[in-house]
Structure formats: C-alpha cells, structure tokens
Amino acid sequence: MKLTALKKAILLCLIPTTSTFAAGLDRSGQSIAAFLQPGNYFEAGISILDPDVSGKDKDNKNTGDMAGDYYFPHAALKIQATDHFSVGLIYDQPYGADAEYSGNSGFVENRPVPFKGGTSVVVDTQNLNLLVGYQPNENWNLYAGAVYQTVDGTVLLRGTTYSVLNGYDFRTGEDESVGWLAGVAYQIPEIALKASVTYRAEIKHKMNAYEHFGLAGLTGNAKLDGVMTALNASSGETELTTPQSVNVDFQTGIMTNTVAFANVRWVDWSNFKVQPYNFGKLSQVLGQAGLVANKPNGFNLIDYKDDQISATVGLGRKFSDRWGANVSVGWDSGAGNPVTTLGPTEGFWSVGTGVRFSPAENYFIGAGVKYYWLGDADAVTGAHSAAGTFTDNNAIAYGLNLGYKF
Length: 406
Fold this sequence. Notes:
Blueprint: H1 5-12, E1 41-52, E2 55-57, E3 70-79, E4 85-92, E5 96-100, E6 108-109, E7 117-118, E8 120-134, E9 140-156, E10 168-171, E11 175-188, E12 193-200, E13 203-207, E14 210-213, H2 222-232, E15 238-242, E16 245-255, E17 258-267, E18 273-274, H3 277-288, E19 302-303, E20 308-318, E21 323-332, E22 339-340, E23 348-360, E24 363-374, E25 377-380, E26 386-390, E27 393-405
Helix pairs in contact: 2-3
C-alpha cells in the first residue's frame, strides 16, 4: 500500500514520550505503539529519570532527597508476516522504584544496632510481550498476546517511624510469572487517524521471600520478642499481584504535516497490596493486641487507596523531510492520599518536548525531555500511622530512541 504524504509525515513525528514517573510503581506506561507501526519495524530506546523528593518526618525533621535516579530500556520488533497477520515482541520494565532515606530523620536508624542505615526500596520488573495481530482490512487490527514477567524487590524499614518494625527486611529474589493482553486498533491512513484500546490482565506472583525482624529480642516486650524470634525462624508463601490496566491511544491529522495525539491510562492500584507472609502474621498480632489502632486483621507493607488515571495530550509536526518535533502536557491522578513512605508523592503535572531526526526515510533518531511537578502528599506507614509530609517536589526525565523500518 502506497503511503500518503500525510502518513509519511506522521511516521517522521515523535511517538509521544512514555511515562517515567507515575502513581504507585508505574513507570514505562506499557505502550504498544511500535506494534501498530506499518510494515516491518524495529525500535530501541532508553529513559532516564532524575527525581528530587524530600519532606519532613512527623517530628518536623528534614528527610533530604530520598528518591534515587534510575533508568530503564525498551525495545520492540514487529513483523508483518502476511497482508493479514503480524507478530511482535516488546520488552520493557513496566514497574519500578529506587529510593533511600539518609540523614537524621525518623526514617533512618543511627543508633548502635545491627541494622543501621536508612529506609530503602528497590523494585525491578521486566516484561517480554509476544503479540499476534489480525488485520481483516487496512482499517482494523485485532491483537492479543502473552506476557512473561519477572519481579525482584527489596524493602528495608529503618528508623523510629516504624516502631517495632524498625529493622525489618524483605527481599523477594527474582520471581517469574505469565499473563496476557488483548486489544483492538482502528486507523484511517489517509488522514493519519489511529485509535487503539489495550487491556492488560493482572499477573500473580507467588514466592518464598526472605524476611527478617531486626528488633527481635530487643523490644523489651517478652511476647513481641518471642513472636518475632519465632517468625524469623519460619517461612511461608508471599503473594504479589501486579495490577490490571487499560491504555487508550488516539492520534489524528489536524492540518498539513501536523497531528494531535492523546493517551489515557487506567491502572488498578486500589486492589494492589504487598503483605509478606511473616509481616502479615506480626501485623495481626500487633492489631489484635491493640498496639496498632483499628487494625485487628493486620495491615500491609504497601498498599494504595485509589486507582490511577493519567492522560497526555500533545501535537506533533514535521518541519522537513528530516526533522520533526512534538510537545505534550500530562496529568496523573496519583493513587490516593495519604501515600506510602516508600513513594511519597501524589500524582503530577508535566510538560514535555522531543525532536526526531531522520537521515533517511526508513530510520530515525529521537530524543526528548519531560519535566514533572509532583503532587504534595502525606506519608504513612503500612499501619497507616502518620509519618511525614512531602511538598514542592519535582522530577525531570530524558529519553532517547532509535527506529528502523525494513
């Protein structure tokens, strides 16, 4: 099929930059835009996030910047096997976290105990998506696929903020599981209109994670010391489920060499929780003993109050056969306030821009930058006791990608 001039222009414009800072643990935005490109297509890129997140603990002590920098790569390969069938592979790192407290706040343990240091969290995930698409005609594309996912997380609680959980360690090791996705896309190439809806199912992980209670034998409460010592010597299966989500993407030509685009994403964070096996057992003891108010059935290490809704809108324009650019504005609802101390922000507003250089018609180099105004938040522990406030924070993200049509 011969490409129209407008469609060629759209292919030279930047694909909207994906999210790198969002509610919960959401990072990549899980785009399948590469799979919906015409013909055979390969893409690879990397995103880098530099956040600045600080606040005050419940005693009004400064936390310092607790959010670490991190990067994540992505790659995609799409093959148009026949006029009606396509296959694709997409690799990304959809969820993640990297944070550590330092200094002299209630999130840091500086006393001479075996577990000195700051509260920290590191979460790494990887997704490999295998997709198959069926195109009954040039307008419709029905697709579905399998998702192979790995999760590796570490949480260390330190400081008086966490009471008897000060010194708690949780390490999952790398766990593997599978899920699925499905969607439908519609396009009118002559006017550069393209719309798609993609659903991703939740993915359940079950693991024998490492847990250790650092205050076992040190609380001065014989019953609690006995419970924690016994739990340190036991193990059980921990369940962790990454959330279901829906992505809606839309673009259309609005004038010569210019397109408008939009993305809306929903993530089911309100049903997400992390309650390690032994952590859950101790939380029930604390709740039933009245040591944690209103939690007779225990509490979670991490959970979220609300679902996440995010949206990005923007314009892309081709300036010449070699150069194109875009601008975008984004909004994220967050996943409820108060929030976990391991990620103490509530949504954001963002503005971004990017450029694309195409030395030849069949390949390009793109780069972009996005600035985030992060929402103020009240931080709480897993037991939902007040821990601090975090205000006036921000982040900046950079991205680089390469694309090749063959």
